[in-house]
Design goal:
Distance between the termini of chain A: 52 Å
Structural class of chain A: alpha/beta
Strand order of the largest sheet of chain A: 4-14-13-12-11-10-6-5
Oligomer: homodimer
Shape of chain A: globular
Helix content of chain A: 40-55%
Strand content of chain A: 15-25%
Number of strands of chain A: 16
């Protein structure tokens, strides 16, 4: 892995992350392909929108279909027909949020599958092994996530456990030509814990550093405050990844604070529930005001949905519950995210990111076009 | 409209139906786009499989979103982003099968919407008006469908009502450059009623003739028997359309009896329930035998699904309930249907349809590849 910074403006950076399976242009948004599919999309269409990398979930894939089946079929890339880089998370977040009855110890997490109730035991070593069996390009350390409501003492102890697990993850990781390992900072909203976590990760030494434990319900200003106090602890020459973030405004604010990589289910999940994310804010296509509107979601958008379909059509297929509604809205949303990232990259390169951010905020505030 | 027969073998014909929006190569299969979308497919992908025409449902569209909204957006073609011919049915079949509490009279059918219980009254004149408001290319007469279990007397009386409605449909139809009107034969499984119906339709004079009232649960041999006794009554130089049929073997048998056009929800509906239709019969992808199978559905199939995805992947995404499962299986199924039709057309052209039919039957009997 090789990370080249091509331009800077303030704390924001534009760069290229070179992996064996392709180049990732940063700041980058990674569409989420939970169970080996970006929901509602064909992989060639995800790529055509400009996505350089997608994220898949270790927790979901270890349960169904199981990593050994994916390995037998030739690895995750072949299995899901995506030849470019894939980042896998470690499963740490999902065992906390999805699994029933998880039991944690310093060794790892015992949990029951949310699908069939079967018991599993996930450790740093096993998580890394699963991710390597899948053939992931960017592998994440196994970590423990703490609730936004945990006390400082609980957060600190949990962070220290995650740092021990980061060390064990690094030891378990087998170097290969195509894969690389990222560490994950924890520490909740507490600056001392974040700083301690960053120091320990840097000591262990990773190819990239993620900020974990955010986007768990905290307000945006708290998230930005944590970033202001976290990012400066990481080395300049390594990529920084803010996990599970977020809304377009969150992403822009995080880029301004020096973050290079993002993932979030928002564009695809919103697409399945009738929400279109646009320059003009969020449009709820189920709203009756769109029923007779011949205009596209966004007349200035160049995505296949906006070029070919009216709001009236999208309103209709969404209300009727047709699959094409999820397809077309997800397509638009992922296009919007990739355009946003591409706009951010150009703006940093041209040292115009603050203008870009100003325009972004004023457009979002202005809101949707008035009804016809 | 202009129908040219390019070749014949026995009763089977290969031809071209020229409409203003495009040429339909017959025998043709029309994918069903009930509510202005072929479920699970983008229109450009339906076209790329070789579909020259699709079918939409008047009943569904009059209820949601309503024909006037579609007209305001620029007509059904623009609304759903399909520029080639569209055939609309008359709503007669759906008011019988879907609507609650339908009340029939010689004038028309009063029914309650299956969606919101609202009352509607559909007449021949109103059905034709809706279809013309939608901008349909092939418009179907409004008819009454009788159950497979109706007595001969009931079937005859219902057929006579349908013939009166065919006459009224023709009178209500406004000639335009782009649209044409087909009559629908009724008469159940009774040869005299079928003959009488054909004679009356020919007297009224239509551009094409449909066989209605089949594919309502009768065995294949009865359907073929009705066709043997119905098709000869229709003029050679007009297209013949067997409504709602069917399974691949039904289609082949009907082509051998002189039918030119077909529609059926089977390939798309099967795609959404994990069924793949192949040269080797039907494959239930949910079956555990496919869980680790690296082979495509059909190694000789050239569709995007078979070129890029294993049975193991399809099994996984189907079991997990991912949208891509419906997309990929529907894509395969519609491809298989269009390939079948294209094979049938070539075979008739080369006078090899009986060989083709023999091979088709032996392959279907042989069944799926053995497990690995």
């Amino acid at each position: 892995m090789n990370f080249k910074i091509k331009g800077k403006e303030g704390n924001a950076r534009v760069g290229e992350l070179h992996l064996q399976r392709g180049i990732i242009h940063t700041p980058a948004f990674m569409p989420v392909g939970t169970a080996a599919t970006v929901k509602g999309m064909l992989p060639e269409n995800v790529r055509s929108l400009g996505a350089d990398i997608i994220l898949c979930n270790t927790y979901h894939l270890m349960l169904r279909p199981g990593e050994s089946i994916i390995q037998q079929i030739g690895g995750l890339h072949k299995f899901m027909n995506w030849s470019r880089p894939i980042l896998t998370d470690s499963g740490g977040f999902q065992v906390m949020s999805l699994a029933a009855l998880s039991k944690r110890s310093d060794d790892g997490v015992e949990f029951k599958s949310h699908i069939d109730g079967k018991k599993h035991f996930l450790t740093p070593e096993y998580s890394i092994q699963i991710q390597q069996t899948l053939g992931s390009d960017i592998i994440m350390c196994f970590d423990e996530c703490t609730s936004f409501k945990a006390t400082e003492r609980e957060v600190y102890q949990s962070m220290m456990r995650s740092m021990e697990w980061a060390f064990r993850s690094k030891n378990a990781f087998q170097n290969t030509l195509s894969s690389t390992l990222f560490g994950i900072q924890q520490g909740g909203v507490f600056h001392d814990a974040r700083e301690e976590s960053a120091k320990r990760l840097i000591e262990i030494d990773f190819e990239g550093y993620a900020v974990g434990g955010l986007a768990v319900g905290e307000p945006q200003d708290i998230m930005f405050d944590v970033l202001d106090n976290s990012i400066p602890h990481f080395p300049d020459n390594k990529p920084r990844y803010l996990m599970g973030v977020g809304k377009p405004g969150d992403i822009l604010g995080a880029v301004l604070r020096g973050v290079d990589m993002f993932d979030c289910v928002l564009p695809s999940r919103s697409g399945r529930t009738g929400q279109a994310l646009t320059r003009m804010g969020t449009i709820n296509i189920r709203n009756a005001r769109h029923a007779k509107d011949p205009r596209p979601l966004d007349p200035k958008c160049g995505c296949p949905t906006c070029k070919n379909y009216s709001r009236a059509y999208l309103h209709h297929v969404c209300k009727v519950g047709e699959i094409i509604s999820a397809i077309l809205l997800t397509w638009h949303n992922l296009h919007y995210y990739q355009e946003l990232m591409s706009g951010i990259r150009s703006a940093i390169f041209d040292s115009k990111l603050s203008d870009f951010a100003g325009q972004f905020i004023s457009m979002q505030k202005k809101g949707d076009m008035p009804p016809l």
